[in-house]
Specification:
Elements lengths: L27 H4 L2 E4 L4 E4 H6 L18 H11 L14 E2 L8 E2 L1 H6 L3 E2 L7 E2 L18 E2 L6 E2 L7 E3 L7 E3 H15 L9 H9 L10 H4 L36 E3 L7 E3 L15 H9 L48 E2 L28 H28 L6 E6 L4 H10 L8 E6 L7 H21 L4 E2 L5 E2 L3 H5 L2 H14 L10 H9 L14 H11 L4 H10 L1 H7 L10 H14 L4 H11 L4 H7 L1 H8 L8 H7 L1 E3 L10 H12 L7 H9 L14 E5 L5 E3 L4 E5 L4 H20 L1
Parallel strand pairs: 13-18, 14-15, 18-19, 19-21
Antiparallel strand pairs: 1-2, 3-4, 5-6, 7-8, 9-10, 11-12, 16-17, 20-21
């Protein structure tokens, strides 16, 4: 019969103390669970029993004390009663150092106090303070202090019992106590490096160094309604004068009455209109956070640039107004050049344009201008080289995609909270980046798998890239660098962001396109080999400080500028004596290096580890020039030529000419020039389920078939566009417009 633990007071004093160490302490974190068994008048600490040198688990799990038989425990107590502890000098020392010729014995609590190492694995070895294992340190490793990535307090880079170094990340250091508490909370399934998320190598080293990792699920997984508090989102306007007539708690998304939370603490909010904010993308600081920054120096007005300021064409895009209707897109240069080249054909006999009615002949020019300006020629060459690089990236990503198996993982995504639901999905135990990903939006209507599974996945990755670009993980305008977000570091979100980008690239998502060249070089070449520039500084106040120092034209003005921001320089570790005007160059470089690189060392390392998923970072480091085309350059705007080149036209062998090919090319031109109710993105979405061209390309490649049908059909499973053969171009155009517009409208509704 299974023994029951009792906490009654029917025993003498001896029975409430551990039979092995003699202590009455009840501290599960240090000594394991203290268990009292009524039937045998026995009390024991679990760790004392586990680490005792003369006892083994000879029974089943439900026998005795977790497999330790009661008779064996009695024998071990009698054996230990003859041994004196080398630390407290009392009898009952049941644990001995396993090093040959070492005769030291001690109680478990005494060993903890004397900094002995207990290995909770295999045969549960114990090492005394003299023979305990130590971690090796490279001679070139810096010895300055850094942040413990769990508690975020400083930890010295010293070979001490209380300090542990990650075996997988050279910049990750921990307090032993922090790691032990983390291990007890996370359990064997979730305990891993907080920077790179490595599990196997990290756990092996921590077990060697005496960290106990319990074989159970994480504490947060066992607690009922553990995530209930996370569902609460602060929604209250805290500004002195609230302008909203419906009250401070009123929140209407995508309007001027949407509540924006403080970018630092998140526990204060404001309506956009109440703080004269023109866009939700603008950052807002509450008064409490402003006062904290004010005390640190002359940075009281920390107004950062809007995350997308430089991407707007006419100042700042205002979310308070209705979005403008879709405007026609015009390609640079001659918009009809591609008509001189035939699209990809699977048959050899293509009828000349004169055999079919040409669409809008007064609008479609079939000849090129004999003279092209130098600027257009240079732009055309640049676009050509960019396309070639992206094609190389596509081929490389296809190699990585070979790892993806047919086994599927379904992600249930809430479109209204895309980031949180994505993180939850990527962190679930069954998720593997090598599985085929299916996405199901929980707040969308049920649709057939054939038409929407691919569309949902493409849309999911597109929303994720947009969220990442505008998230607190990045800062800057067009070319973004990593920002320092302590909450994101604590929650390991930088690793997840890198992992999501890697998975997106291989599984058919869009290219990021918003990285700065400095960030890309840090990822590829390492931060120690990168020299940041002034444009990498997103903080307006810091940029102004650097500019002031840089523009100092004499020693007096330089010393004055340094004096004005001495507190900031001291905090950044850049404060140095200024004795000559030439010192400003070194000072500027120090500030840039600190603000852009050193300040975000932990986020950068974590982000890099995430990008290693599916081997993406390794390929980036092997082919940096081509990968910069998708990380640092915005995706190429769709043009009629781009869409035409995407499709391969199939025709039956018994057809002497591909009827309708000219209508198709002419229709693309009309769409690009704005003379259609649909856009080129709509056409792509109708056929493939994606409104963009994935970095890895389409699988299978898009094709076109001309058939005797009444309306066009987009087969998203095969990426095949079936087009009707019509007598006139106007019939073709009307049918295409009607079908594509109505199909997409029904899907949207």
């Amino acid at each position: 019969e299974e023994l029951r633990m009792s906490k009654t007071n029917d025993f003498d004093v001896q029975s409430t103390s551990c039979v092995l160490c003699g202590r009455t302490d009840d501290c599960p974190e240090k000594y394991g669970e203290k268990r009292t068994y009524v039937e045998y008048n026995l009390t024991v600490h679990y760790y004392c029993l586990l680490m005792s040198s003369g006892i083994w688990q000879r029974g089943e799990e439900d026998e005795g004390v977790d497999g330790f038989l009661i008779t064996d425990i009695r024998k071990e107590v009698n054996r230990a009663a003859k041994l004196k502890c080398n630390i407290c000098k009392k009898k009952g020392a049941s644990i001995g150092c396993v090093t040959p010729k070492c005769k030291r014995s001690y109680h478990f609590p005494c060993g903890i106090q004397r900094e002995c190492i207990f290995q909770f694995m295999e045969d549960f070895r114990s090492y005394c303070w003299e023979h305990r294992p130590v971690q090796e340190f490279a001679d070139k490793e810096p010895r300055e202090a850094s942040q413990c990535t769990i508690c975020l307090d400083l930890v010295e880079h010293l070979s001490l019992y209380a300090v542990l170094k990650s075996p997988c990340c050279k910049n990750a250091w921990f307090h032993r106590d922090c790691l032990q508490y983390q291990a007890l909370s996370a359990g064997i399934f979730f305990f891993r490096c907080t920077v790179c998320n490595n599990k196997d190598k990290f756990q092996k080293e921590m077990l060697r160094m005496g960290i106990h990792i319990p074989e159970r699920d994480a504490s947060w997984e066992l607690e009922e309604n553990a995530y209930q508090d996370l569902l609460h989102c602060y929604q209250h306007c805290d500004v002195k004068r609230c302008l909203c007539k419906k009250g401070r708690d009123y929140n209407e998304p995508d309007s001027k009455w949407e509540i924006k939370r403080c970018q630092y603490c998140g526990s204060r909010g404001t309506h956009l209109a109440c703080s004269s904010m023109k866009s939700w993308e603008q950052n807002w600081d509450c008064m409490e956070c402003r006062s904290i920054f004010a005390k640190s120096g002359k940075y009281s007005k920390r107004k950062k640039r809007s995350l997308a300021t430089s991407e707007k064409t006419n100042g700042t895009t205002c979310l308070l107004e209705e979005p403008p209707p879709k405007s026609p897109r015009q390609s640079s240069g001659s918009p009809h050049n591609f008509l001189l080249q035939s699209p990809k054909m699977m048959c050899q006999n293509l009828s000349p344009c004169s055999h079919l009615e040409l669409p809008a002949s007064n609008r479609v020019s079939m000849s090129l201008s004999p003279v092209m300006s130098n600027r257009n020629w240079s732009l055309s060459l640049r676009h050509k080289h960019l396309r070639e690089k992206r094609q190389e990236v596509c081929n490389i990503l296809k190699e990585l995609k070979a790892q993806v198996k047919t086994k599927t993982t379904r992600l249930n995504i809430n479109a209204e909270n895309i980031w949180s639901s994505a993180i939850k999905g990527f962190r679930q135990r069954i998720f593997s980046p090598t599985n085929t990903i299916e996405v199901n939006f929980s707040n969308s209507k049920n649709r057939s798998k054939t038409n929407t599974s691919a569309a949902s996945k493409h849309h999911f990755f597109q929303l994720l890239m947009i969220h990442l670009q505008n998230s607190s993980l990045f800062e800057g305008s067009s070319g973004k660098n990593l920002a320092l977000d302590f909450q994101a570091v604590k929650e390991n979100l930088y690793f997840e962001a890198g992992k999501i980008i890697a998975v997106s690239l291989v599984h058919g998502g869009p290219s990021p396109g918003f990285f700065s060249k400095t960030l890309f070089k840090c990822l590829v070449y390492g931060p120690e080999n990168v020299k940041p520039a002034l444009e990498d500084v997103a903080d307006v106040d810091v940029a102004q400080t650097i500019q002031t120092i840089k523009c100092a034209n004499n020693l007096s003005s330089l010393q004055s500028a340094v004096q004005d921001c001495c507190k900031f320089l001291a905090a950044a570790g850049c404060l140095r004596p200024v004795t000559a005007l030439c010192d400003k160059n070194m000072l500027v470089n120090d500030i840039l290096n600190y603000h852009v690189i050193k300040r975000i060392t932990l986020p950068l390392e974590s982000f890099r580890q995430g990008l290693k998923t599916l081997g993406v970072l390794e390929k980036m480091q092997m082919h940096p020039d081509v990968f910069s085309s998708i990380f640092c350059c915005k995706p190429e705007r769709l043009s009629a030529e781009t869409v035409c080149d995407l499709f391969t036209i199939h025709s039956s062998s018994d057809v002497n000419k591909v009827e309708g090919a000219d209508f198709w090319m002419g229709y693309l031109q009309d769409v690009e020039s704005g003379e259609s109710v649909v856009t080129l993105e709509d056409i792509l979405l109708f056929v493939t389920g994606s409104c963009y061209v994935p970095s890895v390309g389409f699988d299978p490649e898009p094709t076109i078939k001309f058939l005797c049908i009444r309306y066009p059909i987009g087969n998203r499973l095969l990426n095949c566009l079936e087009l009707p053969i019509t007598k006139t171009y106007q019939q073709f155009k009307n049918i295409m417009d009607l079908t594509i517009r109505n199909t997409l409208r029904v899907e949207k509704d």
